Amino acid sequence: MGRYKTIEAHPGMDVSQAFILLNREESRGTHAKMEFNGVWLYSDVDTEDDMFIKVTGKTKAEREQWWEEEANKIRRLDEEHERNLPYLEERYKKQGREVLPKEKWDHWDFVVPIRLKDLYKGFELRCFLEVETLLLDGGTLEEAKDMISNQGHSGMSFSLIRDMINVFSHRGSELNSYLN
Length: 180
Fold this sequence. Notes:
Layout: E1 5-6, H1 15-27, E2 32-36, E3 39-42, H2 48-56, H3 60-99, H4 105-116, H5 123-136, H6 141-149, H7 155-168, H8 172-179
Helix pairs in contact: 3-4, 3-5, 5-6, 5-7, 6-8, 7-8
């Protein structure tokens, strides 16, 4: 496999773009290689399907079909969530009334539809209610911290749950200080 010019992969680049860059060098008479997601791709050896198989385990056509199926699945889940919004809104408002003092109900009722329509589709509502129920049942701050750690938060959803704890929890400032 002789000498190769090393081409850098760019953030956000996909396999087809890597193939194009490597193929461009090959058409200029220069063998090129690129490390892409931990595997080496070679301009003079790998076809586009070879590159897809190395990186994804699927041919380009198989990968495109998989993406289409995933997009359809997400679309169906989004449509189902949209149909269930009235039920979910009512359910979360009711659950909030079971754990929150009456003076927080109006604010909770305002927040619920907003959170149900965001990227996380109400995930942080459920997470907050689990934590608050634990605390109301005598759970410790350590148990609450462990629960939050095991809920599968991203950085953004962790920020949202902390804001909700701060605003709604009867031990909000105490728990947020403990989480720090």
